[in-house]
Design a protein that fits this description.
3 domains, alpha+beta, Heat Shock Protein 90
Length: about 425
């Protein structure tokens, strides 16, 4: 059976894990009760059927534990079957231990509560109906235990046992229900946060797609004018070859046009690689040095210091040109904010490649801080606000993360976390 996009199989697995923890406490209590019956003369349990059921219950519990270790997806019908097994085996135990007079029969509230909190209503109605049916039948059909029989005409030892048992069962059930509901609420809060992040990612991706569409259209439109300019420049060089001053300008223009044409070709190639979802791999140290060398050629006037941990040489990073552009954009933002002082630290932390880019500019205010990476924002007078949006999208697509934190004195610390292959 397939799950829908809103089933969240990992959440169902978390619920089954919590049910397994509850079962562990329940089985400890049940086995402890059987062991205690050997020392209480007033308790005469039919040990053969009870031990058979308990052994079966324990085996199912162990199989469920190993099932959680299996990567195969856990879905809601499977969780429902697990609850159904609990209900059936517990009622079988109650049949051989006093039926409805057993004070622990109110434990049937626990699977009802769990089902109501985690499963669709149709499953919960089945669980509730079965519990009500079994409870009703156990009022008339069960193996009597004198220790649980209540005599209303006298305050006897049997009545005390029943009251104590009911109180203890209420205590255990209340603790287990409270524990499960609290853990489940935490899981739901985490899931709601993930849903919110997914929606934000969808909105950001829509903006990125819009930008990519415009860029593709602009690239197509620029191709013809660039070809015309290149042809005219070639004719001008042939016509005015004797004018050295003009030739210098024409050569400069030719180089600039070639750079633009090369950028367009690179854009098309990157788009093809992205469509095929192809990425490249490279040694982390070589990759980082290449990025910084390229940035230094682009911004030779910027004064910066760098530290690269030698540990990163032992690892390999997965990348494409969009990651290159994303890191270069962060470096350029730092250079624009404080061209007289930029610090770059690259190291290994928590099995991730960490870039720390420090500048001493004016930094971001709290409002812009909340919008970074989610929509187009800029603090530059001539900025388009697309750089940070594309940076966050590109790095997150490769499994990384970007954060912008306040520097100790003033300015910004941009932290880029990137996973490595090995």
């Amino acid at each position: 059976m397939q799950t829908t996009k809103f089933d969240f199989p990992d959440l169902v697995a978390a619920h089954l894990k919590q049910l397994t923890i509850i079962r562990s406490f329940l089985l400890i209590l049940l086995w402890g009760s059987v062991c205690a019956s050997f020392y209480l003369e007033s308790v005469a349990l039919p040990l053969a059927p009870i031990l058979t059921i308990l052994i079966l219950f324990t085996l199912i519990h162990l199989l469920t534990y190993f099932r959680l270790k299996n990567p195969l997806q856990i879905i809601k019908p499977e969780f429902f079957i697990q609850l159904l097994i609990d209900v059936i085996l517990l009622n079988a135990l109650f049949y051989f231990s006093g039926g409805a007079t057993n004070p622990f029969i109110s434990y049937l509230l626990v699977p009802i509560c769990i089902s109501a909190a985690t499963l669709p209503w149709r499953y919960t109605w089945i669980i509730t109906s079965l519990c009500l049916l079994f409870y009703t039948l156990l009022m008339f059909f069960h193996v009597n235990l004198p220790v649980f029989e209540i005599h209303h005409h006298a305050q006897t030892h049997n009545f005390n046992w029943h009251i104590i048992g009911m109180w203890f069962n209420f205590f255990v059930s209340a603790m287990l229900i409270t524990y499960f509901v609290v853990r489940m609420a935490n899981d739901l809060r985490v899931r709601e946060q993930q849903i919110t992040e997914m929606r934000e990612d969808e909105l950001r991706d829509e903006q990125v797609i819009a930008v990519a569409t415009l860029a593709a259209g602009a690239a197509h439109e620029m191709n013809t004018p660039l070809a015309t300019i290149s042809l005219l420049l070639s004719e001008l060089r042939a016509t005015h070859s004797q004018d050295s001053a003009l030739m210098d300008d024409l050569h400069l223009l030719t180089r600039q046009v070639n750079v633009c044409a090369g950028s367009l070709k690179k854009m098309v190639k990157d788009s093809e690689l992205a469509a095929r979802r192809e990425v490249q791999e490279k040694n982390c140290l070589d990759y980082c040095n290449n990025i910084i060398d390229l940035w230094q050629l682009m911004r030779p006037q910027v004064k910066f210091t760098k530290y690269i941990s030698p540990e990163i040489q032992q690892h390999v990073i997965r990348y494409d040109s969009r990651l290159d552009n994303a890191i270069l954009n962060c470096l350029n933002n730092a250079a624009d904010a404080s061209p007289e002082k930029v610090e770059v630290n690259i190291q290994l932390q928590n099995k991730k490649l960490i870039w720390q880019i420090l500048d001493w500019g004016i930094g971001f205010d709290s409002q812009i801080q909340q919008q970074i990476g989610k929509e187009s924002v800029t603090t530059k007078t001539q900025g388009l606000g697309l750089g940070l949006l594309l940076t966050h999208a590109s790095i997150k697509r490769l499994g990384g993360e970007v954060r912008h934190e306040a520097n100790q004195s003033n300015g910004t610390v941009t932290v880029i976390e990137l996973p490595f292959v090995s």
